[in-house]
Protein backbone atom coordinates (compact mmCIF):
# COMPACT_ATOMS: atom_id res chain seq x y z
CA UNK A 1 0.00 0.00 0.00
CA UNK A 2 2.74 2.43 0.96
CA UNK A 3 4.74 4.11 -1.81
CA UNK A 4 8.22 5.52 -1.90
CA UNK A 5 7.70 9.14 -0.87
CA UNK A 6 10.35 10.86 1.18
CA UNK A 7 10.28 10.05 4.90
CA UNK A 8 8.25 12.49 6.96
CA UNK A 9 11.09 13.50 9.22
CA UNK A 10 14.51 12.91 10.63
CA UNK A 11 14.84 10.28 13.32
CA UNK A 12 14.39 11.69 16.78
CA UNK A 13 15.75 10.11 19.90
CA UNK A 14 13.18 8.49 22.14
CA UNK A 15 10.19 8.40 19.87
CA UNK A 16 11.55 6.85 16.69
CA UNK A 17 10.57 8.81 13.64
CA UNK A 18 6.83 8.93 14.20
CA UNK A 19 5.08 12.22 13.53
CA UNK A 20 1.73 12.96 15.11
CA UNK A 21 -0.93 15.08 13.44
CA UNK A 22 -4.19 15.91 15.19
CA UNK A 23 -7.23 16.99 13.20
CA UNK A 24 -9.48 18.97 15.53
CA UNK A 25 -12.17 21.61 15.57
CA UNK A 26 -13.57 23.93 18.21
CA UNK A 27 -16.90 22.08 18.04
CA UNK A 28 -18.55 19.10 16.37
CA UNK A 29 -20.13 19.08 12.91
CA UNK A 30 -17.33 20.81 11.01
CA UNK A 31 -16.48 17.75 8.89
CA UNK A 32 -13.38 16.91 10.91
CA UNK A 33 -13.91 13.14 10.79
CA UNK A 34 -14.70 13.17 7.08
CA UNK A 35 -11.46 14.99 6.37
CA UNK A 36 -9.50 12.75 8.77
CA UNK A 37 -10.76 9.67 6.93
CA UNK A 38 -9.82 11.11 3.55
CA UNK A 39 -6.37 12.17 4.79
CA UNK A 40 -5.82 8.68 6.21
CA UNK A 41 -6.70 7.20 2.82
CA UNK A 42 -4.35 9.55 0.97
CA UNK A 43 -1.54 8.95 3.45
CA UNK A 44 -1.90 5.15 3.39
CA UNK A 45 -1.08 5.14 -0.31
CA UNK A 46 2.36 6.56 0.39
CA UNK A 47 3.46 5.49 3.84
CA UNK A 48 2.40 3.24 6.72
CA UNK A 49 0.39 5.02 9.38
CA UNK A 50 -1.65 4.39 12.49
CA UNK A 51 -4.93 6.21 12.87
CA UNK A 52 -6.56 7.01 16.19
CA UNK A 53 -9.96 8.36 17.12
CA UNK A 54 -9.68 10.40 20.30
CA UNK A 55 -13.36 11.30 20.38
CA UNK A 56 -14.05 8.68 23.01
CA UNK A 57 -17.67 9.73 23.47
CA UNK A 58 -18.59 9.33 19.80
CA UNK A 59 -15.91 7.58 17.78
CA UNK A 60 -16.93 7.70 14.12
CA UNK A 61 -13.57 7.27 12.38
CA UNK A 62 -13.61 3.46 12.86
CA UNK A 63 -16.93 3.40 10.96
CA UNK A 64 -15.63 5.61 8.17
CA UNK A 65 -12.56 3.39 7.74
CA UNK A 66 -14.30 -0.02 7.91
CA UNK A 67 -12.72 -1.30 11.08
CA UNK A 68 -12.39 -4.84 12.32
CA UNK A 69 -11.82 -4.79 16.06
CA UNK A 70 -9.11 -7.22 17.16
CA UNK A 71 -8.48 -6.19 20.77
CA UNK A 72 -10.52 -4.84 23.65
CA UNK A 73 -9.17 -3.75 27.02
CA UNK A 74 -11.22 -2.62 29.95
CA UNK A 75 -10.51 0.96 30.89
CA UNK A 76 -10.66 1.31 34.67
CA UNK A 77 -12.50 4.27 36.06
CA UNK A 78 -12.59 5.65 39.57
CA UNK A 79 -13.00 3.46 42.64
CA UNK A 80 -16.38 2.92 44.25
CA UNK A 81 -17.28 1.59 47.68
CA UNK A 82 -18.61 -1.97 47.81
CA UNK A 83 -20.27 -3.58 50.82
CA UNK A 84 -19.56 -7.20 51.70
CA UNK A 85 -23.00 -8.21 52.84
CA UNK A 86 -21.68 -11.18 54.85
CA UNK A 87 -19.59 -8.84 56.98
CA UNK A 88 -22.09 -6.01 57.41
CA UNK A 89 -23.74 -5.96 60.84
CA UNK A 90 -26.19 -3.20 59.95
CA UNK A 91 -24.76 -0.83 62.57
CA UNK A 92 -25.26 2.14 60.22
CA UNK A 93 -22.03 3.77 61.36
CA UNK A 94 -21.01 4.30 57.73
CA UNK A 95 -24.11 6.38 56.93
CA UNK A 96 -22.86 9.43 58.78
CA UNK A 97 -19.37 9.15 57.33
CA UNK A 98 -20.54 9.75 53.77
CA UNK A 99 -20.71 13.42 52.82
CA UNK A 100 -22.27 12.52 49.48
CA UNK A 101 -25.35 10.77 50.79
CA UNK A 102 -24.39 7.66 48.86
CA UNK A 103 -25.20 5.14 51.59
CA UNK A 104 -28.58 3.91 52.70
CA UNK A 105 -29.75 0.76 54.44
CA UNK A 106 -31.86 -2.04 53.09
CA UNK A 107 -34.85 -3.55 54.94
CA UNK A 108 -32.61 -6.16 56.47
CA UNK A 109 -30.35 -3.40 57.84
CA UNK A 110 -27.34 -4.01 55.60
CA UNK A 111 -25.69 -1.02 54.01
CA UNK A 112 -26.24 -0.25 50.32
CA UNK A 113 -24.07 2.03 48.18
CA UNK A 114 -25.46 4.19 45.37
CA UNK A 115 -22.53 3.95 42.96
CA UNK A 116 -23.65 6.98 40.95
CA UNK A 117 -23.44 9.11 44.10
CA UNK A 118 -20.27 7.49 45.47
CA UNK A 119 -17.13 9.58 44.95
CA UNK A 120 -14.76 6.85 46.12
CA UNK A 121 -13.35 8.91 48.99
CA UNK A 122 -13.01 5.84 51.25
CA UNK A 123 -14.38 7.51 54.39
CA UNK A 124 -16.99 4.78 54.86
CA UNK A 125 -14.36 2.02 54.63
CA UNK A 126 -12.41 3.75 57.40
CA UNK A 127 -15.54 4.20 59.49
CA UNK A 128 -16.68 0.58 59.26
CA UNK A 129 -15.33 -1.43 62.21
CA UNK A 130 -16.31 -4.72 60.61
CA UNK A 131 -14.16 -4.36 57.51
CA UNK A 132 -17.30 -4.72 55.43
CA UNK A 133 -16.53 -1.95 52.93
CA UNK A 134 -13.81 -2.03 50.28
CA UNK A 135 -13.02 0.22 47.32
CA UNK A 136 -13.03 -1.37 43.90
CA UNK A 137 -12.29 0.11 40.49
CA UNK A 138 -15.22 0.30 38.10
CA UNK A 139 -14.91 -0.11 34.35
CA UNK A 140 -15.39 3.27 32.69
CA UNK A 141 -14.92 2.27 29.10
CA UNK A 142 -12.81 0.33 26.65
CA UNK A 143 -9.58 0.84 24.75
CA UNK A 144 -9.99 -0.83 21.36
CA UNK A 145 -7.57 -1.74 18.61
CA UNK A 146 -8.03 -3.18 15.17
CA UNK A 147 -7.34 -3.11 11.49
CA UNK A 148 -9.08 -0.73 9.13
CA UNK A 149 -8.85 0.12 5.46
CA UNK A 150 -5.72 2.22 6.08
CA UNK A 151 -3.92 -0.11 8.52
CA UNK A 152 -3.89 -0.13 12.31
CA UNK A 153 -6.46 1.85 14.26
CA UNK A 154 -6.83 2.65 17.96
CA UNK A 155 -9.85 4.20 19.61
CA UNK A 156 -11.72 4.40 22.88
CA UNK A 157 -15.30 4.14 24.03
CA UNK A 158 -16.30 5.79 27.25
CA UNK A 159 -19.39 4.53 29.00
CA UNK A 160 -22.23 7.07 29.34
CA UNK A 161 -22.02 9.13 32.48
CA UNK A 162 -18.29 8.59 32.97
CA UNK A 163 -16.12 11.67 33.30
CA UNK A 164 -12.65 10.30 32.59
CA UNK A 165 -12.49 11.14 28.90
CA UNK A 166 -9.14 12.95 29.21
CA UNK A 167 -7.52 9.90 30.78
CA UNK A 168 -8.92 7.53 28.14
CA UNK A 169 -7.84 9.91 25.37
CA UNK A 170 -4.30 9.88 26.77
CA UNK A 171 -4.37 6.07 26.66
CA UNK A 172 -5.56 6.08 23.03
CA UNK A 173 -2.89 8.62 22.07
CA UNK A 174 -0.08 6.73 23.80
CA UNK A 175 -1.20 3.34 22.47
CA UNK A 176 -1.35 4.67 18.90
CA UNK A 177 2.13 6.11 19.17
CA UNK A 178 3.57 2.91 20.66
CA UNK A 179 1.90 0.86 17.93
CA UNK A 180 3.29 3.15 15.23
CA UNK A 181 6.82 2.70 16.58
CA UNK A 182 6.34 -1.06 16.86
CA UNK A 183 5.13 -1.33 13.26
CA UNK A 184 7.59 1.16 11.81
CA UNK A 185 4.81 3.55 10.80
CA UNK A 186 5.79 7.14 10.08
CA UNK A 187 2.62 8.87 11.10
CA UNK A 188 -0.05 8.83 13.76
CA UNK A 189 -3.14 10.59 12.43
CA UNK A 190 -5.55 11.50 15.20
CA UNK A 191 -9.18 12.47 14.76
CA UNK A 192 -9.50 14.68 17.81
CA UNK A 193 -12.51 15.31 20.01
CA UNK A 194 -14.53 18.49 19.50
CA UNK A 195 -14.19 21.53 21.76
CA UNK A 196 -11.22 22.79 23.73
CA UNK A 197 -11.63 20.83 26.96
CA UNK A 198 -9.50 18.22 28.68
CA UNK A 199 -9.90 15.55 25.96
CA UNK A 200 -8.59 17.99 23.35
CA UNK A 201 -5.65 18.93 25.57
CA UNK A 202 -4.87 15.24 26.04
CA UNK A 203 -5.09 14.71 22.25
CA UNK A 204 -2.84 17.51 21.11
CA UNK A 205 -0.23 17.59 23.88
CA UNK A 206 3.10 16.66 22.36
CA UNK A 207 1.73 16.49 18.79
CA UNK A 208 3.83 17.66 15.85
CA UNK A 209 0.96 19.54 14.33
CA UNK A 210 -2.65 20.50 14.82
CA UNK A 211 -4.89 20.92 11.83
CA UNK A 212 -7.80 23.07 12.93
CA UNK A 213 -10.90 22.47 10.83
CA UNK A 214 -13.14 25.53 10.77
CA UNK A 215 -16.40 26.28 9.04
CA UNK A 216 -17.54 29.69 7.82
CA UNK A 217 -19.84 30.94 10.55
CA UNK A 218 -19.68 33.35 13.44
CA UNK A 219 -19.36 30.52 15.94
CA UNK A 220 -16.77 28.83 13.70
CA UNK A 221 -14.59 31.91 13.96
CA UNK A 222 -14.98 32.03 17.73
CA UNK A 223 -14.22 28.30 18.07
CA UNK A 224 -11.16 28.63 15.86
CA UNK A 225 -9.70 31.44 17.98
CA UNK A 226 -10.13 29.36 21.14
CA UNK A 227 -8.51 26.31 19.58
CA UNK A 228 -5.58 28.32 18.23
CA UNK A 229 -5.03 29.88 21.67
CA UNK A 230 -4.98 26.43 23.25
CA UNK A 231 -2.55 25.07 20.64
CA UNK A 232 -0.22 28.00 21.28
CA UNK A 233 -0.36 27.46 25.02
CA UNK A 234 0.66 23.85 24.43
CA UNK A 235 3.36 24.88 21.91
CA UNK A 236 1.77 22.81 19.14
CA UNK A 237 2.19 24.22 15.59
CA UNK A 238 -1.21 24.84 14.04
CA UNK A 239 -2.61 25.37 10.56
CA UNK A 240 -6.20 25.84 9.45
CA UNK A 241 -8.47 24.18 6.91
CA UNK A 242 -11.62 26.04 5.98
CA UNK A 243 -14.26 23.40 5.32
CA UNK A 244 -17.53 24.01 3.44
CA UNK A 245 -15.88 27.25 2.40
CA UNK A 246 -18.57 28.27 -0.07
CA UNK A 247 -21.48 28.07 2.37
CA UNK A 248 -21.13 31.74 3.33
CA UNK A 249 -18.87 34.07 1.35
CA UNK A 250 -19.02 36.73 4.04
CA UNK A 251 -18.24 34.38 6.94
CA UNK A 252 -15.49 32.67 4.92
CA UNK A 253 -13.84 36.05 4.30
CA UNK A 254 -14.03 36.84 8.02
CA UNK A 255 -12.39 33.51 8.79
CA UNK A 256 -9.59 34.17 6.33
CA UNK A 257 -9.10 37.56 8.03
CA UNK A 258 -9.01 35.81 11.42
CA UNK A 259 -6.19 33.55 10.17
CA UNK A 260 -4.25 36.59 8.93
CA UNK A 261 -4.76 38.40 12.25
CA UNK A 262 -3.67 35.36 14.21
CA UNK A 263 -0.69 34.78 11.92
CA UNK A 264 -1.91 31.24 11.19
CA UNK A 265 -1.56 29.71 7.76
CA UNK A 266 -4.79 28.77 6.04
CA UNK A 267 -3.46 25.63 4.42
CA UNK A 268 -6.46 25.11 2.20
CA UNK A 269 -10.18 25.32 1.62
CA UNK A 270 -12.65 22.54 0.89
CA UNK A 271 -15.92 23.52 -0.79
CA UNK A 272 -19.19 22.01 0.36
CA UNK A 273 -19.41 18.71 -1.47
CA UNK A 274 -22.45 16.48 -1.18
CA UNK A 275 -20.37 13.63 -2.69
CA UNK A 276 -17.89 13.49 0.19
CA UNK A 277 -20.03 11.44 2.56
CA UNK A 278 -21.26 8.98 -0.09
CA UNK A 279 -17.63 8.52 -1.17
CA UNK A 280 -16.64 7.70 2.38
CA UNK A 281 -19.59 5.36 2.73
CA UNK A 282 -18.50 3.50 -0.40
CA UNK A 283 -14.99 3.29 1.04
CA UNK A 284 -16.44 1.81 4.22
CA UNK A 285 -18.43 -0.72 2.21
CA UNK A 286 -15.30 -1.76 0.43
CA UNK A 287 -15.83 -0.88 -3.19
CA UNK A 288 -13.05 1.71 -3.22
CA UNK A 289 -10.51 -0.08 -1.11
CA UNK A 290 -7.21 -1.94 -1.46
CA UNK A 291 -7.84 -2.96 -5.04
CA UNK A 292 -7.86 0.62 -6.21
CA UNK A 293 -5.34 3.34 -5.42
CA UNK A 294 -6.82 6.48 -3.97
CA UNK A 295 -6.15 8.32 -7.21
CA UNK A 296 -9.01 6.28 -8.69
CA UNK A 297 -11.54 7.56 -6.21
CA UNK A 298 -14.10 9.48 -8.20
CA UNK A 299 -13.02 13.05 -8.36
CA UNK A 300 -15.30 15.59 -6.84
CA UNK A 301 -14.44 19.15 -5.79
CA UNK A 302 -14.18 18.10 -2.13
CA UNK A 303 -12.01 15.03 -2.72
CA UNK A 304 -9.75 16.96 -5.06
CA UNK A 305 -9.33 19.87 -2.60
CA UNK A 306 -8.68 17.49 0.29
CA UNK A 307 -5.96 15.69 -1.68
CA UNK A 308 -4.16 18.95 -2.50
CA UNK A 309 -4.37 19.96 1.15
CA UNK A 310 -2.96 16.61 2.22
CA UNK A 311 0.07 17.10 -0.01
CA UNK A 312 0.71 20.46 1.69
CA UNK A 313 0.29 18.84 5.11
CA UNK A 314 2.86 16.18 4.25
CA UNK A 315 5.34 18.89 3.28
CA UNK A 316 4.60 20.66 6.54
CA UNK A 317 5.15 17.50 8.59
CA UNK A 318 8.40 16.81 6.76
CA UNK A 319 9.82 20.16 7.92
CA UNK A 320 12.34 19.89 10.76
CA UNK A 321 10.63 20.28 14.15
CA UNK A 322 10.93 23.77 15.61
CA UNK A 323 12.25 24.21 19.12
CA UNK A 324 9.17 24.64 21.26
CA UNK A 325 10.06 24.07 24.92
CA UNK A 326 6.90 23.78 26.96
CA UNK A 327 6.95 25.59 30.26
CA UNK A 328 6.76 23.51 33.44
CA UNK A 329 3.37 25.06 34.17
CA UNK A 330 2.01 23.92 30.82
CA UNK A 331 3.39 20.42 31.18
CA UNK A 332 1.71 20.27 34.58
CA UNK A 333 -1.53 21.61 33.10
CA UNK A 334 -1.44 18.93 30.43
CA UNK A 335 -0.73 16.15 32.95
CA UNK A 336 -3.45 17.35 35.27
CA UNK A 337 -5.97 17.31 32.45
CA UNK A 338 -4.87 13.95 31.15
CA UNK A 339 -5.25 12.42 34.60
CA UNK A 340 -8.75 13.73 35.04
CA UNK A 341 -11.55 14.44 32.69
S1 LIG B 1 -20.46 0.51 59.10
FE1 LIG B 1 -19.96 -1.46 58.18
S2 LIG B 1 -21.08 -2.94 59.35
FE2 LIG B 1 -21.99 -0.95 59.84
S3 LIG B 1 -23.66 -0.75 58.36
FE3 LIG B 1 -21.91 0.20 57.45
S4 LIG B 1 -21.00 -1.45 56.24
FE4 LIG B 1 -22.39 -2.41 57.64
S1 LIG C 1 -16.44 5.94 49.34
FE1 LIG C 1 -16.93 8.01 50.10
S2 LIG C 1 -18.52 8.69 48.70
FE2 LIG C 1 -18.41 6.49 48.44
S3 LIG C 1 -19.95 5.68 49.79
FE3 LIG C 1 -18.02 5.69 50.93
S4 LIG C 1 -18.02 7.65 52.04
FE4 LIG C 1 -19.60 7.78 50.44
Structure overview:
This protein is of the alpha/beta class and 341 residues long. It has two domains: 19-66 and 149-339, Rossmann fold (3-Layer(aba) Sandwich); 78-139, Alpha-Beta Plaits (2-Layer Sandwich), CATH 3.30.70. The chain is built from eleven helices and eleven strands. The protein has helices spanning 32-44, 61-64, 93-97, 123-127, 165-183, 198-204, 218-233, 249-262, 276-285, 301-318, 328-339, and strands spanning 19-25, 49-53, 68-83, 103-105, 111-113, 133-148, 151-158, 187-194, 209-214, 238-243, 266-270. Mean pLDDT is 85; it is low at 10-15, 287-296, 324-334 and 336-341. Bound molecules: iron/sulfur cluster (SF4) (2 copies). One iron/sulfur cluster is lined by residues 81, 97-98, 100, 102-103, 113, 118-124.
SSE order: EHEHEHEEHEEHEHEHEHEHHH
Multimerization state: single chain
**How many E-type strands?**
11
Q: Calculate the terminal CA-CA distance, rounded to whole Å.
A: 38 Å
Mean of pLDDT: 85
The level of helicity is: 25-40%
Q: How are strands sequenced across the largest beta sheet? A: 3-6-7-2-8-1-9-10-11
At the fourth level of CATH, the homologous superfamily of the largest domain is: P-loop containing nucleotide triphosphate hydrolases
Described by the principal axes of the CA atoms, the overall outline is elongated
Q: Please work out how many helical segments DSSP would assign.
A: 11
CATH fold annotation of the largest domain: Rossmann fold
Question: What compounds sit in this structure?
Answer: iron/sulfur cluster
